[in-house]
User: Fold this.
Amino acid sequence: MNHHSLSAFIWSVADLLRGDYKQSDYGKIILPFTVLRRLDCVLESTKAGVLTEHEEKKKLGLNADPFLLSKAKQSFYNISPLDMKKLMGDQDHIKVNLFSYIQGFSVAVRDIFERFEFYAQIDKLAKSGLLYQVTEKFVNVDLHPDKISKSQMGLVFEELIRKFAEISNETAGEHFTPRICNATRNNTFLCCILSSKYAWQ
Assistant:
């Protein structure tokens, strides 16, 4: 699957949002969910080791952060026992479990989702009765690094931003990226993860 077909598939989430969301708001859902799913896939292979390491270091009263980063083999980690596939197993508690999952990420990643104002969007999706369906849609997208390369993932994200901007009748990136650009001044990690140059771990 090339990046154009992949971004088109991800963008098909708009079919679920139509009627409950304005077109100009589609990106507020699609962009952070794309980031979340990519991170979910990137961490999958080291998840069990990170959870074990976290429990061991917590018992010893040590600062687990450097150990968890080492175990995750990334510049971020997640200590929640949940992942996106497991979220599908409890439809009645999808909102609280998704919040809990996001809170399990290391600080830099949580900052990304705060800058997306993702918690407010999750709450709105839940009130609209769409949260489970939207989450399931992204669970069915395979964004594992062995399937989608760093450069491909960067291109996908750029394509999504462009489509979002077109819908908003603005120049590509203008609607969404100022908040991201402000964030990058104080958050190198955010800059790296949203850049196709360093693209997506």
Remarks:
- Residues 171-192, 194-201 have pLDDT under 50 and may be disordered.
- The two ends are 19 Å apart (CA to CA).
- DSSP finds 13 helices and no strands in the chain.
